[in-house]
Amino acid sequence: MIRTLLVDDELPGREGLRLRLAHEPDIEIVGEAADGSEAVALTRSFEPDLLFLDIQMPGTDGFQVLDAIAGEHLPMVIFVTAHDEHAVRAFEVGAVDYLLKPVGMDRLRQALERVRHATARDRRWQQGERVAALLDSLETGPQASSYLRRFAIREGDRYRLLAANDVDWIQGAGNYLELHAGSRTALVRMTIREVEGRLDPERFVRIHRSTIVNVESIREIVPEWHGDSEVVLRSGQVVRMSRTYRHRLFPRDDAER
Fold first, then answer.
1. 27 and 74 Cβ atoms separated by less than 8 Å
2. Per-residue pLDDT tens for 224-257?
3. Can you name the CATH fold of 2-121?
């Protein structure tokens, strides 16, 4: 089942979607939200697979909802709106589709087919995660580390294994991660919060809401006047460290301030 949350400040809009989705046997509506703040709370509570998300709502708009839950659990998103001027930005933030009100049944089903294809793709990603977990479990003994040691990277009909310690830095992108290892970049299905909890904290440090670095890959850190810093890696890549996360690399320094 595709667990779905409806978000629209107009009740008729939610009712119309609910009636149309009642004919889709694999769609389960787990909740409805009438504004952006409620949408954020329900998304964190229910962790749905899919959001039907309005854009213009009182207070927190649809894009702000996605920004608030970025790096946590980010569902697939279908924007449903009466305004067509936000379409480019919607796809830039990874929306599955963009529907204009009033939503016709044919157009809705087309969007749902995209969701189903994405769901099938996610299941293939999860197979790779199980492969890596199985290999880790085979190596686990009384003295073995419980931290993630490798990622399974899907390449066509096979998986390539990437040692976690070979990863220089990680960029979060919703429910996916970009793993940067030297000149290679790979994509895995996992949130930044999930991977942070599974990596060795002595080696991997979160320096930004959406960035984790391998401390062994850091060449230098360049502070900036406003409190943020540039972290220069041995590869030459520069990533940003937010002052909010500065204590992760400099706990004593911050304690003395």
1. no
2. 888 899 999 999 999 999 998 988 888 665 444 4
3. Rossmann fold (3.40.50)
Q: Quick one: pLDDT at residue 257?
A: 44
Which parts of the chain have pLDDT scores under 70?
A: 71-72, 121-145, 156-158, 251-257
Q: Please, which residues have CB within 8 angstroms of residue 179's CB and are 6 or more apart in sequence? A: 151, 153, 162, 167, 170, 185, 186, 187, 188
Alpha helices by DSSP H, listed for 75-230, are: 87-92, 105-139, 192-198
Cα separation, 66 vs 90, in Å, equals 10
Q: Which one, of 86, 106, 89, 94, lies nearest residue 69 by Cα?
A: 94
Q: What integer pLDDT is reported at residue 62 of this predicted model? A: 93
The span from the first CA to the last CA of the chain, in angstroms, equals: 51
CA 138 – CA 156 distance, rounded (Å) = 25
Mean pLDDT of the chain: 85
CB 64 within 8 A of CB 56: no
Q: What is the architecture, at CATH level 2, of domain 145-256?
A: Beta Barrel (2.40)
